């Protein structure tokens, strides 16, 4: 062991770079550069590098006076680059035997150069262990630390977390330092006679190779407990509250002892109740009302009893116990919050009310919160349900007694109506009535699961839009202005919109309106109204007339373009009827009951008949169409959805079409032509009777009937042929309009 206050010899690490040039011809042609590539910590691996700019030379390492040779811990690396060659000395698991001076020799011809370096092996500093001490006051004690490292210098002790000011000079500690090994030392701090102020933490420290090394040792001075009374408060007619600060002397307090002294008496009275050692406050009970008292308090631990602490003044108990009960009132109400307020205690009790307990509840909810008496006597309960009743009450509490007074009288509060949730099970159905021949929408719904109040009525908003090909051949968009209906809460929760346009996409919004008069969240749904045939007024604009072309008579048909607002038109089909002799238009059956044959069958039969002369889609419509010109219009549709135009079905032909048996007279211009029977330009005027459920058809000058459209199987392809007219016969005809039905079915 070293003498007290001594220091370990300062050991130091050094790196030296030396270069010696030996040139027997006084010509410098060779130099050596040496370096250490890592810190020489004990147990680590290091490398010593030797470089020369010359590539053709011999190198070797010398340690002390001997050449360094390879062993199980020593190896060499040789190499070269474009600018230098090197010899690296590698030492693994470094020990103190490896420290010292190393020299690299390089020889080239008669030239010899050397480079040297020296190092000490170091050990990073660390704390191996510390020992704490527990000892009674006035007894001796010691603390110790074991440190490891090399080198370790400036060993010292100091008090942790203590600042010395002025005459209170920093304590000079008596400590010893002993060397345990080359890399370990132990230092001890001695206390001949402990004082209470010696209690605390101490730092043992030294300077290591990488900086300070610091350990912490704790000294626990065991002493009797010391008490400091902080608060004395009268809290009733028979109770006084005590609060104190404790220094337990590093031993748990076993119990407290209390004595009381009534003003006018002759002696102190021992308080009989046992006060647990874990307390730092207590309420002395069973005192006399309206009486002045002094109090003594003492604590005991394993070391012994501490010094009694007494109150310098008398404290007078109340005449009677007082209880403050707040009065609660509603301050503000919203759909989701209620603000309450309560009265303050009287002045003489203000110091005894430290916080309030607030309670809100109903059959499904209960919430309790605490409000400090230092804050305002207001509190807002948030996140409540709309249109819901809640009850509220408040109690005043004391930090001294950890008790609360009586609950206030409960009050009721009901939140306002809020915004209603979205109605549920909303259904929207677009329908076409075959009897009234009109479109309508039926809307039904159920009340919202969260009405958030009392719903007084429902708002129903209907909007629609349609994109279609107009009568000018240009695409148009039609938007239906919002239609709004209000439905009373006591109704069947359904509504109907009548006389709506066909071929329209409709959207519906339904919302509940509560007593705050604000619309709730929308429930939304959509439906599409099926298409139907064009309006009657549009169809009645077609015109028939007889014209003569050179030596033949033709029927000229003028069809203005019809708006497709009611539905996309797939195609037009022109039917020609050859009347029997003495037959009039009034004798003809309705178009939908007409048997359709081929052109040849009609003109070979003396009874006449009906055939398809021309067929074309909407995009191919021209202003004038000539019938009987022996030119057939039968353009294939370009719309894949209209690949088959379903309507009146002709009888399958038995033979190819042929010219009429009674050809039209040839001749000059129209002024010299024979008179065409008046029936030739006739047009069916009756309203057709719909019999097939899979068609949407119309003859010109009709109001048309829309029948629910369904998918149909592909019918036989009709024979379309516009042959020459028989000048000896009377003709009539009609036009069929084929509309694309719902779900892209052709009808």
UniProtKB/TrEMBL annotation:
InterPro entries: FN3_dom, FN3_sf, Ig-like_dom, Ig-like_dom_sf, Ig-like_fold, Ig_sub, Ig_sub2, R-tyr_protein_phosphatases
PROSITE patterns to which the protein is assigned, alphabetical: FN3, IG_LIKE
Residue span, Ig-like domain: 124-206
Keyword Repeat among record annotations: yes
Biased composition (Pro residues): 650-662
Sequence segments annotated as region (Disordered): 650-674
SMART domains with a match to the protein in the record: FN3, IG, IGc2
Coiled coil feature spans: none
Keywords from the UniProt entry: Disulfide bond, Repeat
CDD domains: FN3 (cd00063)
Pfam families referenced in this protein's UniProt entry, alphabetically: fn3, Ig_3
Transferase keyword on record: no
All copies of domain Fibronectin type-III, residue ranges: 224-320, 325-418, 422-535
Protein name per UniProt: Tyrosine-protein phosphatase 69D
Species this chain originates from: Cacopsylla melanoneura
């Amino acid at each position: 062991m070293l003498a007290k206050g001594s220091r370990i010899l300062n050991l130091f690490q050094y790196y030296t770079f030396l270069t010696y040039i030996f040139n027997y011809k006084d010509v410098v042609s060779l130099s050596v550069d040496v370096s250490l590539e890592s810190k020489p910590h004990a147990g680590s691996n290091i490398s010593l590098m030797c470089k020369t700019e010359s590539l053709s030379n011999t190198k070797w390492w010398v340690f002390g006076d001997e050449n360094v040779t390879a062993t199980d811990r020593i190896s060499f690396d040789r190499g070269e680059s474009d600018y230098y060659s090197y010899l690296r000395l590698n030492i693994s698991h470094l020990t103190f035997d490896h420290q010292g001076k190393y020299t690299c020799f390089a020889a080239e011809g008669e030239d010899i150069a050397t480079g040297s370096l020296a190092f000490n092996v170091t050990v990073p500093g660390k704390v191996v262990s510390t020992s704490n001490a527990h000892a009674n006051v006035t007894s001796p004690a010691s603390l110790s630390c074991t440190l490891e490292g090399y080198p370790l210098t400036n060993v010292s002790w100091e008090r942790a977390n203590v600042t010395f000011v002025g005459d209170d000079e920093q304590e000079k500690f008596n400590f010893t330092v002993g060397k345990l090994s080359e890399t370990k030392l132990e230092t001890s701090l001695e206390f001949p006679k402990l004082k209470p102020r010696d209690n605390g933490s101490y730092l043992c420290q030294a300077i290591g190779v990488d900086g300070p090394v610091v350990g912490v040792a704790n000294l626990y001075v065991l002493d009797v407990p010391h008490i400091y009374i902080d608060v004395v408060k009268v809290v009733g007619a028979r109770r006084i509250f005590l609060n104190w600060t404790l220094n337990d002397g590093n031993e748990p307090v076993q119990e407290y002892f209390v004595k009381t002294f009534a003003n006018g008496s002759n002696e102190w009275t021992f308080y009989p109740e046992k006060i647990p050692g874990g307390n730092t406050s207590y309420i002395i009970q069973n005192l006399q009302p309206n009486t002045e008292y002094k109090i003594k308090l003492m604590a005991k631990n394993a070391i012994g009893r501490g010094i009694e602490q007494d109150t310098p003044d008398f404290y007078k108990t109340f005449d009677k116990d007082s209880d403050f009960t707040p009065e609660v009132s509603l301050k503000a109400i919203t759909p989701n919050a209620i603000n309450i307020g309560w009265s303050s205690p009287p002045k003489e009790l203000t110091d005894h009310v430290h916080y309030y307990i607030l309670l809100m509840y109903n059959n499904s909810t209960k919430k309790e919160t605490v409000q400090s008496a230092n804050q305002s006597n207001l509190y807002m309960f948030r996140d409540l349900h709309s249109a819901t009743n809640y009850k509220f009450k408040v109690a005043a509490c004391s930090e001294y007694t950890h008790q609360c007074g009586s609950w206030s009288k409960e009050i009721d509060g009901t939140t306002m109506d809020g915004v209603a949730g979205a109605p549920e099970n909303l259904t929207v159905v677009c329908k076409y009535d075959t009897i009234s021949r009109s479109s309508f929408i039926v809307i039904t719904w159920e009340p919202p699961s969260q009405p958030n109040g009392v719903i007084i009525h429902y708002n129903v908003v209907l909007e629609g839009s349609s994109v279609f090909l107009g009568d000018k051949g240009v695409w148009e968009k039609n938007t239906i202005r919002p239609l709004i209906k209000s439905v009373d809460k006591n109704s069947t929760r359904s509504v109907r919109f009548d006389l709506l346009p066909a071929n329209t996409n409709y959207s519906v919004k339904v919302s509940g309106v509560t007593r705050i008069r604000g619309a709730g969240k929308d429930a939304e749904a959509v439906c599409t109204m099926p298409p139907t045939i064009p309006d009657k007024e549009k169809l009645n604009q077609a015109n028939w007339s007889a014209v003569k072309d050179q030596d033949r008579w033709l029927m000229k048909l003028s069809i203005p373009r019809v708006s497709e607002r009611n539905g996309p038109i797939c195609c037009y089909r022109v039917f020609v009827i050859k009347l029997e002799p003495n037959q009039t238009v009034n004798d003809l059956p309705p178009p939908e009951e007409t048997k359709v044959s081929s052109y040849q069958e009609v003109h070979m039969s003396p009874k006449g008949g009906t055939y398809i002369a021309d067929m074309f889609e909407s995009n191919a419509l021209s202003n004038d169409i000539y019938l009987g010109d022996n030119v057939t219009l039968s353009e294939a549709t370009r719309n894949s959805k209209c690949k088959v135009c379903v309507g009146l079905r002709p009888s399958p032909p038995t033979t190819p079409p042929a010219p009429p048996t009674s050809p039209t007279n040839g001749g000059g211009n129209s002024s010299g032509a024979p008179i065409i029977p008046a029936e030739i330009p006739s047009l069916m005027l009756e309203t057709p009777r719909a019999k097939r459920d899979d068609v949407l058809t119309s003859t010109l000058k009709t109001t048309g009937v829309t029948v629910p459209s369904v998918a149909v199987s592909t019918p036989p392809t009709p024979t379309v042929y516009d042959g020459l007219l028989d000048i000896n016969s009377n003709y009539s005809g009609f036009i069929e309009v084929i509309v694309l039905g719902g779900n892209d079915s052709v009808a």
